[in-house]
Automatic annotation (TrEMBL):
SUPFAM superfamilies: lambda repressor-like DNA-binding domains, Periplasmic binding protein-like I. One of its GO terms (molecular function) is transcription cis-regulatory region binding. Residues 3-55 form the HTH lacI-type domain. InterPro entries: HTH_LacI, Lambda_DNA-bd_dom_sf, Peripla_BP/Lac1_sug-bd_dom, Peripla_BP_I. Keywords: DNA-binding, Transcription, Transcription regulation. This is HTH-type transcriptional repressor PurR. Coiled coil: none annotated.
Length: 335
């Protein structure tokens, strides 16, 4: 069996990054170093077909699930649908999908990326729900295409696939106002990510377009989990804080926790207070009353991200793209 790039780097006393750049014809190493690496690789029987895998319809695609605080990604059913779509599209096109989890505060990011450099990685899909811009930029230093899934950064020069969060929030808030005729409040997440900030923009736009002032909307910050939102909402109710007659919640977990707290304290939903969520998780169908929410085609998002990455692997692109997937309002009994 021929030598691996990692073994070659150790033999030549070079970094894995330098060996990867030399073998892949990337800038960043001297002409002498590049010639040395290729010469020694040929002598040691390095399998150069591994390099062509990155350009042909074969090889490995890595899905990196990057966790920061685990506040959002802790709810796994949502993200299993995304990875199902990724895997289906990869398999259809002859690629093998490898999924790994990276804990930003614990794992050695640089070591992680070095391992990717010397692997048979053809491209990376970075699940960016909790990822920071700085971590995203580290992955963009790889010599393979990178797609950012479920997030977007103006400073990141890579293609991305994400939900049209503002559109979904706008649909839910407009429906609340039209049905209830009341100034809606906002149950926003205490942990702020890009998705939630965009949902806030959609909420504000709907309020303003209905002739209301966003300054008059009652806002409560709740933990983005059922248990956390339940406890936080109970505390808000018991403190005597004024409540709105209708609420848009940043996600279904917050909405469900708030409904449980309101019902425990004797409020009727939707007669006293109407609530709409976002994500269309299964728990929202079985809670009483069933939750009005925004549906996200997560499997389709995964398929779209994988398809875009494969296009960029096979035909390098000059410009990155931002693909926003539209959402759908699901009308149930909480409004």
């Amino acid at each position: 069996m021929g030598i691996t790039a990692k073994e070659l780097a150790a033999r030549l006393n070079l970094s894995a990054t330098a060996v990867s750049m030399a073998l892949n014809g990337k800038p960043g190493v001297s002409t002498e170093t590049r010639a040395l690496v290729i010469r020694e690789a040929e002598k040691a029987g390095y399998d150069f077909s591994r390099l062509s895998m990155k350009k042909n319809a074969s090889g490995d695609i890595y899905c990196i699930i990057c966790r920061a605080h685990n506040a959002i990604l802790n709810y796994t059913p949502i993200f299993s649908e995304l990875t199902d779509g990724l895997e289906q599209e990869c398999r259809k096109n002859g690629y093998h999908l490898k999924t790994f989890q990276l804990y930003e505060k614990v794992d050695d990011l640089q070591k992680y990326i070095e391992e990717l450099r010397i692997s048979q990685c053809a491209g990376v899909i970075l699940l960016g729900t909790e990822v920071s811009a700085s971590v995203c930029h580290e992955f963009l230093q790889l010599s393979v295409p990178v797609i950012l899934l479920d997030s977007y950064f103006d400073s990141a020069d890579c293609s991305c696939v994400l939900i049209n969060n503002a559109q979904g929030a706008y649909l839910a808030t407009s429906y609340l106002i039209d049905r209830c005729g009341r100034q809606p409040g906002h149950l926003c997440s205490s942990y702020r990510i890009t998705n939630f900030r965009e949902r806030t923009h959609g909420f504000h736009r709907a309020v303003r377009e209905h002739g209301m002032s966003t300054a008059k909307s009652i806002i409560h910050e709740l933990s983005p989990s059922i248990e956390g939102a339940f406890s936080d909402m109970l505390e808000i109710i018991d403190s005597g804080t004024p409540l709105a007659g209708a609420y848009f919640a940043d996600n279904d977990l917050i909405a469900i926790g708030a409904i449980k707290a309101l019902k425990l304290r004797g409020y009727k939903v939707p007669e006293d207070i109407a609530i709409a969520g976002f994500d269309n998780i299964s728990e929202g169908r079985v809670i009483d009353p069933a939750l009005t929410t925004i549906d996200v085609p997560r499997k389709f998002m995964g398929q779209t991200a994988a398809a875009q990455l494969i296009r960029e692997i096979q035909t390098p692109v000059l410009h990155s793209v931002k693909i926003e997937v539209s959402t759908t309002l699901i009308k149930r009994f909480s409004v």
